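User: Reviewer 2 asked us to show a designed sequence for the structure in our supplementary figure. I'm pasting the structure tokens here. Could you produce the per-position amino acids so we can include them in the response letter?
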């Protein structure tokens, strides 16, 4: 007797035929990426800003910072870190208030879609654009300025976890700070000054140890400084760690501070995030 077997239910679908959780998240992520790419201003600023800055710095500082390390090799770490902060913290902090003001978030909340799917879509967008932006920045720096890429698997692994923890912390903080903007227009006014100040005091535009001590101490309270420091351990010689304020790259402390900011970001998101404006109730 011949038996027939029913086709297995795809892992991406529920028994009712509806998309599963993973499929919903990926679909929302594709939507977020598409919306981002349709905004030419956001694409140009987010993708182009780090590249423009490294071109400027490489043209101004063409020599060595010391110990055989070129200025370009030093500043690429800050450009990668600030690029990841831009696509996560700054981008989300500006665009979420716009979506809230237009009623987009209110409509999302009224649909059967689980709320976490919307957040997952934002995370997928940040990760995808962040990877593309970093790859483009490294390609330009290698092609034009002979950037030395990490030569060992260990350094690439460090690059991965520093960037991963850093972009997670910045993403959560970007979602949290979006609640401070009362209207769509005020999002940029709230987020941009914070991002600029952090860039100036965290070793993005200047050699970190050249900054005043009090400024270094303030920067150490925030994740961008630790992202830059962790990335310096990847792109600079091991001996260069002795020139850091702590006498080494302090990768353990880098991981601890970035992980702590991830926890802080989760708490802030859970306690402050709003789906509607005050006028909507």
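Assistant: Here is a per-position design you can include in the supplement:
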């Amino acid at each position: 007797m011949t038996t027939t077997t029913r086709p297995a239910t795809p892992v991406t679908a529920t028994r009712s035929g509806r998309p599963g959780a993973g499929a919903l998240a990926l679909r929302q992520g594709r939507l977020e990426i598409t919306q981002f790419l349709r905004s030419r201003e956001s694409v140009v600023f987010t993708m182009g800003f780090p590249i423009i800055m490294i071109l400027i710095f490489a043209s101004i500082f063409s020599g060595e910072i010391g110990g055989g390390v070129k200025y370009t090799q030093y500043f690429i770490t800050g450009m990668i870190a600030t690029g990841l902060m831009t696509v996560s913290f700054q981008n989300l902090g500006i665009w979420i208030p716009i979506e809230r003001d237009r009623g987009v978030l209110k409509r999302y909340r009224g649909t059967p879609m689980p709320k976490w799917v919307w957040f997952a879509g934002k995370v997928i967008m940040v990760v995808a654009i962040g990877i593309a932006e970093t790859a483009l920045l490294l390609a330009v720096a290698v092609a034009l300025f002979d950037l030395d890429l990490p030569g060992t698997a260990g350094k690439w692994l460090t690059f991965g976890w520093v960037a991963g923890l850093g972009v997670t912390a910045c993403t959560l903080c970007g979602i949290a700070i979006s609640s401070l903007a009362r209207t769509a227009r005020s999002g940029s006014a709230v987020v941009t000054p914070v991002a600029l100040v952090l860039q100036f005091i965290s070793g993005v535009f200047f050699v970190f140890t050249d900054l005043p001590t009090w400024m270094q101490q303030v920067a150490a309270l925030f994740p961008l400084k630790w992202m830059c420091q962790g990335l310096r351990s990847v792109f600079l010689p091991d001996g260069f760690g002795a020139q850091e304020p702590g006498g080494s790259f302090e990768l353990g402390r880098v991981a601890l501070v970035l992980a702590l900011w991830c926890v802080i970001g989760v708490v802030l998101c859970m306690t402050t995030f709003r789906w509607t404006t005050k006028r909507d109730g």
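For the response letter, you might also mention the following. Residues 21-280 form one domain. The two ends are 65 Å apart (CA to CA).
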